[in-house]
Write a structure and sequence with these properties.
Length: 519
């Protein structure tokens, strides 16, 4: 059994691969930029976790110490205009670190496609494989097309398009051929090739037994989901770029991610070499069965990992709400406090149920409108929702926000992933107050970028005045997110007292400019 390093363990494939490796008897170490994102995983106590990044040689050296093999499962698709170049540099750094550490194998999951004119996404996935192979450590590369599983980007795009649109006008790329594969089969191949000597230094193409078009996939999905037949018309004038904008409006995928995926669908992605069968005898499930399994997970709220688990990369210069006062920069803060006779556990339950289908406890239409503007600006948009209506963990997505910190029963902090001239956070802290009551503090903080960022904050002050005040009141009272005054997360409506609220505090963290205004 091998000692294995898994990169991308907080992502879609990596998060599902780790328990499979453990079940096969391997010892697993995970490399994560945010180790706290793994704290809620059921397998957390069975693995080692190393904090680091594939672009940092020092952290890689530490993470690879004593390791036999490594899985390379990271990529930056849609992460800015130079994401392909960044992926190539990261692969080079990882390759050299693996050579210095004396690893015996690298296993990499790439993209299936052949011939000239590959999309940027597919070309980048294959280039990363080439970069990894230019080192002394043998590389096993598996190339897959569309991965079908609950929470995968391809499946979620398919699901939302078919369920929301009974009639579709589609571009010609829906007739391109591909060979989709169930996520369970991808995992089976990834685990199996690790201890196969015949797999070292080779490229394998993997796919399910069915060769279908995206048009076929949509029709089959409708049948499996019990939906009426979809009317699908294809026209030659819709470009992949226009298609990605439409997908961004209809599905949770932001245009920045949808665009490279759509461009990839223009290329046929069919397995042309079945040499994997001689090395790993395995019978993948048919496409229809893969859809059935994925839908069952979605309906049972048992989506173990999702495409949005992999958060956008941040640079060390990005502001953090916990930065010390001497770190420099200005932070604007809207702070509000409310007292409630409800116990802290009930108030915190209301806080952690925010977003998704329940909304935002006051003027949810404003949050939706802001999300639409974000979508039009190329951001993630308002449709991501949340993985589970009641459970949260660090790294989870809530609409246009991501859970950055979570102290069960006490504190929740969200970081905005919307396009804006600065960085924003929302934080709630619940403390005991009086005889069984609670004190809820809500802070909205914004680190502006330049003059535009400051104007952005001041223009929104009147909106914040009503929005944040209503939000903290309803959260503390246990009221439902929408109109009305009864019910809610705890099933009761309680009187709430507000105090000293509505402050918009400019906090200058540079002591040479002014005194601190933290309080």
């Amino acid at each position: 059994m091998a000692r294995v390093l898994v990169t991308g363990a907080t992502g879609y494939i990596g998060g599902r691969l780790v328990p499979e490796l453990l079940a096969a008897g391997h010892t697993v170490r995970c490399l994560a930029r945010s180790p706290s994102k793994l704290d809620d995983k059921p397998w957390r106590e069975a693995v080692e976790v190393a904090a680091g990044d594939v672009e940092d040689p020092a952290s890689l050296e530490s993470a690879m110490a004593g390791v036999d093999a490594a899985y390379y499962l990271v990529h930056s698709i849609g992460g800015g205009p130079a994401w392909a170049e960044r992926d190539s540099r990261a692969a080079e750094t990882f390759r050299d670190a693996a050579a210095r550490a004396g690893l015996t194998r690298i296993v990499y999951l790439g993209g299936l496609g052949a011939g000239a004119g590959l999309s940027e996404h597919l070309a980048s996935r294959q280039e990363v494989g080439d970069v990894l192979r230019h080192g002394p450590v043998p590389v096993t590369e598996l190339r897959a097309a569309v991965v079908i599983g609950s929470g995968s980007a391809s499946f979620e795009m398919l699901r939302h398009l078919v369920e929301k649109l009974p009639c579709m006008v589609t571009p010609r790329w829906v007739r391109s051929r591909c060979q989709p594969i169930a996520v369970r089969d991808v995992l089976a191949y990834l685990v199996a090739v690790l201890d196969k000597d015949a797999a070292a230094g080779r490229i394998f193409e993997i796919g399910g037994p069915d060769v279908v078009s995206y048009l076929d996939m949509m029709r089959i999905y409708a049948e499996v989901a019990g939906l009426p037949p979809r009317l699908i018309l294809t026209v030659p004038i819709l470009s992949p770029w226009l298609s990605s904008l439409w997908i961004g409006l209809v599905t949770p995928l932001p245009p920045a991610l949808a665009r490279p995926l759509v461009h990839s669908l223009v290329n046929d992605a069919v397995v042309g070499d079945r040499s994997i069968d001689a090395v790993v005898p395995h019978e993948p499930v048919p496409f229809r069965r893969a859809v059935e399994l994925a839908l069952r997970r979605c309906r049972d709220l048992d989506v173990r990992t999702s495409w949005f688990d992999a958060e956008p990369r941040r640079t060390p210069a990005d502001p953090q709400p916990t930065d010390p006062p001497w770190s420099g920069g200005t932070v604007f803060e809207d702070r509000r406090t409310a007292r409630s006779p409800a116990p802290p556990a009930d108030v915190f339950r209301a806080v952690t149920s925010i977003g998704g289908d329940r909304g935002w406890y006051g003027a949810s239409w404003l949050w939706t409108a802001r999300g639409v503007l974000d979508l039009l600006a190329g951001g993630s948009g308002p449709r991501r929702g949340r993985r589970h209506p009641d459970r949260l963990a660090v790294g989870d997505v809530i609409d246009t926000w991501r859970v950055e910190a979570l102290e069960p029963g006490r504190r929740l902090r969200l970081r905005s992933e919307m396009r804006m001239p600065g960085q924003a956070w929302l934080e709630w802290t619940v403390e005991p107050d009086g005889a069984g009551g609670s004190r809820l503090q809500q802070r909205a903080r914004f680190n502006p970028r330049g003059l535009v960022g400051r104007l952005y904050w001041y223009l929104l002050v009147p909106v914040h005045a009503g929005l944040f005040g209503r939000m903290v009141h309803r959260l503390a009272a246990g009221l439902p997110p929408g109109p009305g005054s009864s019910g809610g997360a705890g099933g009761t409506s309680l009187p709430v007292a507000s105090e000293g609220v509505g402050e918009a505090i400019p906090i200058d963290a540079n002591p040479r400019k002014s005194k601190e205004m933290y309080r």
